[in-house]
Amino acid sequence: MKFLIILSLFILSFTTQACMFQPEGLVEKHIQQFLYFLIASVIVFFLIFIIRYLHNKSRIWVPTIAVLGFGYFPFTSYILEYAGLSGFSGACGQPGLVYTGKFLLVGLSVILAYELFKYFKYRCKL
Q: For 9-53, what is each residue's pLDDT tens digit?
């Protein structure tokens, strides 16, 4: 057991870093990555509703509830990041924004995969 704890802490130590001197342009790069993830999320968002509308107009509320569920944490994280309450300690730039964008895009991609599955299942029944 002690070996597993030491091994896991050793592996996790490679993912942390302390920022003594912030590289130039890192904040701008993080903001650019966040905007990329946000634009991709908006595109996926509209695809979710288009696919649901094509095969089941009466249950359009299902992806709405799912999007609200997946969107709660990224929205809260975004607000806390800009309020300065959830900064990553020792990190350079704004990695919280990048994490928020990734989380939102992954969540919406999961919903899109579900909607595509339901759509193709519906199409095969016809």
A: 777 766 666 676 777 888 888 889 999 999 999 999 999 999 999
- pTM metric for this prediction: 0.74
Distances (CA, A) of 58 to 25, 71, 108: 48, 23, 21
Measured distance CA(91)–CA(17) in Å, rounded: 7
Alpha carbons 64 and 112: distance in angstroms, whole number = 12
Distance between CA 43 and CA 37 in Å, rounded? Answer: 10
Residue 17's identity, in one-letter code, is Q
Q: Are the C-beta atoms of 41 and 105 separated by less than 8 Å?
A: yes
What residue has token string 């579900």? Answer: 114
